[in-house]
Design brief:
25% of the residues lie in helices and 13% in strands. The chain has helices spanning 24-41, 67-75, 139-148; strands spanning 57-61, 80-85, 104-108, 124-127. A four-stranded parallel beta sheet has the order 3-2-1-4, with helices on one face.
Length: 151
């Protein structure tokens, strides 16, 4: 809890400077944002893939509760997904319906450090709402680390 009594991650601010709040109301906003995108764009992302195309392997950096990953896994049946977040608040994979658990995994790591993946391992990397968590002196290295993860 911070001075405003909001629930944040349990890490020291110098190690994990994200100001992210993990209260239920904030997590619900993530779900609403994903639903809004699906309605407004008729897609799960602003990126337009070619007709019938979808990425093979997808990484969601700062996945939070995993709402976007699960929505995409339902839409892109031929893709596999990794949701990365420092806080383990994603749903239990064994409770997911319809074989989603075979195509989804959760990884808990600090996105400001070297990611635990090989270079060019992903076809599509989704990053949203984490700009405040990247210190100004780390922006270049952050972008470099994350462009290596994708073709």
């Amino acid at each position: 809890l911070d001075s405003s009594r909001r629930r944040h991650h349990p890490f020291r601010p110098d190690a994990v400077p994200y100001p992210r709040n993990y209260e239920r109301a904030i997590l619900d906003l993530d779900a609403w944002d994903t639903l809004w995108l699906r309605q407004a764009c008729k897609s799960v992302t602003f990126h337009k893939f070619g007709n019938g195309e979808q990425p093979g392997r997808v990484l969601d950096v700062g996945c939070g509760s995993g709402t976007w990953v699960l929505e995409c896994a339902s839409a892109w049946k031929g893709s596999t997904f990794v949701g990365l977040d420092i806080v383990p608040i994603q749903p239990d994979l064994s409770r997911l319906p319809g074989g989603l658990s075979k195509r989804v995994s959760w990884v808990h790591a600090n996105f400001l450090e070297r990611l635990p993946f090989s270079d060019e391992e992903f076809d599509f990397v989704h990053i949203k709402r984490i700009a405040q968590g990247v210190p100004e002196d780390m922006v270049r290295s952050f972008l470099g680390i994350h462009t290596e993860a994708c073709d």
